[in-house]
Design a protein that fits this description.
Elements (H helix, E strand, L loop, with lengths): L27 H21 L3 H10 L5 H11 L2 H8 L1
């Protein structure tokens, strides 16, 4: 899926789907999942002493996790910059 810059006649596409992207490169549904994932990581890290990658892998593998959160987790696993930010 290609992402075009604004001003090139096309809107930005969500990192996780083909909908129009907004803040942080996600559509509104995936943005909400992203915010939940980011907000809850510190609690899980303290409780289980897990890494960012293990946290995201757990989200992706959990059958009770919603699809939007799983799709965001997949995107974040592939995004090296976010791993470094979250680990610090």
């Amino acid at each position: 899926m290609s992402i075009k810059k604004k001003g090139e006649g096309e809107t930005l596409k969500c990192k996780a789907c083909s909908r129009e992207a907004g803040e942080r490169g996600f559509c509104p549904s995936h943005l909400k999942a992203y915010e939940n994932i980011m907000r809850k990581f510190s609690f899980w890290r303290k409780a289980l002493n897990i890494t960012w990658k293990d946290y995201l892998s757990g989200i992706e593998e959990n059958p009770l996790t919603g699809e939007w959160a799983k799709e965001v987790a997949r995107c974040l696993i592939n995004d090296g910059e976010l791993k470094n930010v979250a680990e610090s």
